[in-house]
Amino acid sequence: MFVAVRGSLWSLSCKLALAAVFSTAACHVAAFVETFESYPEDSSMQTGNHVSDGWYVVSNNIVYTYFNVADMSYGVVNGIPVAPAYSGTRALSLLISDIDSIRVNGLGAFYLASAWAYAPTAPQGATITAIGLGSEWGDEVGSETLTIPAIAPGQSPWVKLSFDERLASPYGIAFSSNVPLFMDNLKIYTAVPEPETWSLFGLGLLGALLGRKRLHSH
């Protein structure tokens, strides 16, 4: 009898935990436009390079790995003459790499809907590849290549890029570019569990741990 009840509790606890993890109904979807204007200025942004110090940026619970925030109000970044930011004074700086990625800081889905891009060293135009990450090891869920057209005389060098919804992923999106790139006004959607989902997950996990402890004690 005791064994049967104990087994039922263990099964129920596991099911509660799994239900919380895979539930999509109890999620809160948030949308915002990231401009990096509120990103704390560090001493490196005040030097001749005018970019933030470090190998990642965290803003609004989003992690930008291998990116920097650039202060474009000086007219030069990393020795490259630049136009003003699309809005405000700051923008995201993307180096030439295939490992630059944007991820949610913690559990949650992520979708970058659009961004304004600028390639100051490629007045003839440039390309950027966006890759949806299917796992923390970088497995692809899809990819697309977007073109930044040549800068037209007298026109703004900033171009709006819209990204395919198929690139939405819990693990974020990675970029590669054939030239240094700046991005501004990123429109981002995130889906994070509601508080009751976290409570359900915590309850199930706690029950599972207690049940396992009792199994070992007997």
TrEMBL record:
Superkingdom per UniProt: Bacteria
Domain Ice-binding protein C-terminal: 191-214
Signal sequence interval, chain numbering: 1-19
A Pfam cross-reference name: PEP-CTERM
Keyword line: Signal
Record's protein name: Ice-binding protein C-terminal domain-containing protein
Organism: Silvimonas amylolytica
Lineage: Bacteria, Pseudomonadati, Pseudomonadota, Betaproteobacteria, Neisseriales
